[in-house]
User: Which sequence fits this backbone?
């Protein structure tokens, strides 16, 4: 068995690598930081390979696929991504476009190319790491929420296409709430509630993926929160979300 994880050098991606290693998967670890990748690799017992790749750039996304397309990957995890706090008229446009490139463009390209290969051999799992943000709009974290909406909805559409074909290929979307990672530091914000344990989220996400679960929400609290969003009027939900996000912003 072989798995590939993007964003493997830290956070949920790093935890996924350790858990997959414990399950006996050979691994391909992908991230931008070679030193951190080597640190993760040093803790892995199974055979592993590291690939330094910056998913902001389309040419590197295609190079990544070309490097691994003959590796017979069984489980592909699109985990790399980041956010950016701030009002939309004040956040840095270049940084937001980089976010769109990583969170959407790279995920779209890799999902399509890998899916085509998986469909040909009629097996394989793709796990796209979305977010609870994928179920709603996010004032003060607008672009991030929008990107995760894209990832979630793309995954849902692909699922239905595969289901109707009775395919043995499966896609899943992991939708956690706040997780205790370095997301805050990168996004320049701070969660006001304690994030879920990244090891738990990683294990839960992979276990459910391997059981062909479509939407994967790791904690009961977040499941109840997402259910509640379906009952609230849109404008009220926006007010609530704005107040929550505003409290996260770093000075």
Assistant:
């Amino acid at each position: 068995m072989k798995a590939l994880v993007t964003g493997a050098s830290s956070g949920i991606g790093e935890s996924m690598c350790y858990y997959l290693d414990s399950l006996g998967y050979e691994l391909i670890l992908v991230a931008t930081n070679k030193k951190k990748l080597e640190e993760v690799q040093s803790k892995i017992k199974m055979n592993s390979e590291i690939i330094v790749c910056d998913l902001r750039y389309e040419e590197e996304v295609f190079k990544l696929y070309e490097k691994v397309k003959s590796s017979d990957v069984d489980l592909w995890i699109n985990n790399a991504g980041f956010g950016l706090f701030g009002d939309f008229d004040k956040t840095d446009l270049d940084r937001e476009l980089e976010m769109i490139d990583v969170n959407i463009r790279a995920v779209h390209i890799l999902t399509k190319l890998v899916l085509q290969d998986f469909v040909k051999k009629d097996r394989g799992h793709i796990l796209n790491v979305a977010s609870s943000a994928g179920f709603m709009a996010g004032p003060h974290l607008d672009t991030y929420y929008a990107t995760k909406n894209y990832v979630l909805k793309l995954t849902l559409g692909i699922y239905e296409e595969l289901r109707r074909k009775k395919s043995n290929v499966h896609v899943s979307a992991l939708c956690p709430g706040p997780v205790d990672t370095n997301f805050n530091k990168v996004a320049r914000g701070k969660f006001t509630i304690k994030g879920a344990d990244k090891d738990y989220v990683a294990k839960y996400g992979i276990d459910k993926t391997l059981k062909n679960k479509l939407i994967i929400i790791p904690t009961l609290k977040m499941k109840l929160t997402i259910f509640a969003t379906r009952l609230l009027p849109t404008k009220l939900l926006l007010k609530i979300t704005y107040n929550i996000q505003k409290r996260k912003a770093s000075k």
